[in-house]
Amino acid sequence: MKERKNKRFSRIREMFSGIPALGWLVGALVAVIIEYYFGNSLADFLHMDRLPVLFGVVVILKRPLDIPGAFVYVMLIYAIPIAVVARLTSRLMNRIAGFFDRLPLWVSAIVHLILLYYVLSVWTDLSDYRLLILKLSLIAIMVTLSLNVINGYMGEFSCSHPGFMALGAYVSSIFSVGLFVNDRILGHALLGVVPAWVGQLVFPIGLLLGGAIAAIGALIVAIPSFRTRGDYLAIISLAFMFIVKSLFDNLGFLGGARGLGSQPDWATLPTIFIWAVLCIWTINNFVESTMGKALNAVRDEESAAESMTVNTRKTKMIAFMFGAFWAGIAGGLFAHVLRYVNPGTFGLRKLAEVLAMVYFGGLNSVIGSIVGAVGFNLLSEMLRPLEIIKWIIIPTLLILVMIFRPTGLIAFKHFDVREILKPKLKAKERM
Amino acid sequence: MPLLQVKNMTHYFAGLRAVHNYNLTIEPGEVHGLIGPNGAGKTTIFNLITGVYRPTEGEITLEGKSLIGLFPHEIASMGLGRTFQNMKLWRHMTVLEHVKMAHYSELTYGLVGAFFGTAKRYKEEEEIEQHSYELLRLLGIENIADQNVLNLPYGVQRKVEMARALAIRPRILFLDEPTVGMTPEELKEMMDVFRKVHEEFGLAIFLIEHRMKVVMELCEQIQTLNFGEVIAEGTPEEIQNNPKVIEAYLGKEEVE
What we know:
- The complex is a heterodimer.
- By secondary structure, chain A is mainly α.
- Chain A folds into 2 domains: 2-124, no CATH class; 129-419, ABC transporter involved in vitamin B12 uptake, BtuC.
- Chain A contains 19 helices and 2 strands.
- A two-stranded antiparallel sheet of chain A has the order 1-2.
- Chain B is α/β, with parallel strands linked by helices.
- Chain B folds into 2 domains: 1-79 and 170-256, 3-Layer(aba) Sandwich (Rossmann fold), CATH 3.40.50; 92-167, no CATH class.
- Chain B is built from 10 helices and 10 strands.
- In chain B, a hairpin with a 2-residue loop joins strand 4 and strand 5.
């Protein structure tokens, strides 16, 4: 019985083994377009209140009677179209992927990213809730990845990431609200209210300012790290997080503990998408270079690294400042997505969430961070109907991951873009 | 001018005198040995010269330039390579990555190159990769360049460490018990490696070793250390017959 099942499973695997990333993306695009036009009427037809937002999981947990409906919906809208399109176009897509493979990598990467962006933007067009989850997931990727640089690649246990995010969030909010919004707390807009397209032009400046201030703040943690490691550094970084939090708690002109609101709506999906891609790109570039691998050398044997001409102080400073920079950018985007920021957000709870995403996804791995951040965010939204039980399921999952894969789901793996995008042979042909 | 000179070096660990009045002169291309019982302060001397500790008193110069107060990585990039008693390989890195890493001070592409992957970066990475492969070929381990170091047998790990130390383009190499725990075959191979790098690069070698066979065969000059002080210095023959050395190693001749 089991053998037969295995056989069937391997036949399915065989069927879908020769499909390149491009094929899957095209399949996904077809699926989301079908949903865009027919999703609502299909949901009506299946007697559901509205279309299932997160692949039907939320619906199932909320109203068990809708289980068949949600199943049919997911099959008809996602599973079957993706499978059919990906399978039928595999030969054509392999040929196109082969053509791209001969071009410089960035051409192919940009084409794939544009396609991915379209898939995401059509998918989120149907529901603001989806859009919000997607935005927060992209931001979570940036935060997780930047913390992975410090905790995974360099192996220091840093707890200061919410602090860096807070610095970025507040600095970019002061920039945007102070200069471009008439606000109760920060007063009259210094440069006057601007149209959205001007906002998009100046928004990067605000974000970069936030990132830069966070990077400078990171020096407070980086400099002690020259002399101390492990638990002691963890305590210092934790202290840093609390210092930042209570600083913003006590700065009356920024609204204190009540927070700062009315950020302009500049953090649109394309903006966040571009920043997230930039973040992944630069961090992956960095950790694949010999200069970035110096982080691993410092982690594994610091004294050997020093004796092999590695400037360990510089390396530590770069890691902390670079990580903090992206955390600051992510914080700025976060503040502009919620259009409100308060110090309470960047406390222990945020820390636990970020650490969980890093260790869940996998240390020392870009793809692990992406999987960790997206998986954790989706899971946490999908299980929302379970309320308190959600906080039993997610920690249990984390514990299980730690037992079976102590360094995380996908740890110590190279993120090889060319390998992912290249044309795929069928399992049979590969032998 | 001597390659490496140490004058009157003394070091205290919180009141405990670890090294007392230590002097050393190594000429280019010379092989110098340092022996002594466990705890005599041999590794401490290595760490003092390579900048891990800062000596309480004394002078250290490499080609006339003082090394006092410099960071270990600065001293290393001046041409002082070393290996460790317990190897200290980086457990998550491949053989090639080890050897490439030791070229760190040669990289000039900076943060811009590292973050954005400029053409200069790929050129420089390619250059250090070429040099790394040359060293791996010299030691006969180029076929395992992509393997993780943890999976390798002990003798091969030692070679990786040697390749890594050679990658900083040293003029003098400090070897801290390089043959400890080796089988006779591995030992023979390692001795060949020493001779090869010594001849190929005209390297000076400063060697801590417990196996008298290795020391006597390789070294031109030997110092014997006990309780942080040099008790004897000279050629292998002189050391072998020195009563003080025999006493330090075997105790006084009361039995006979």
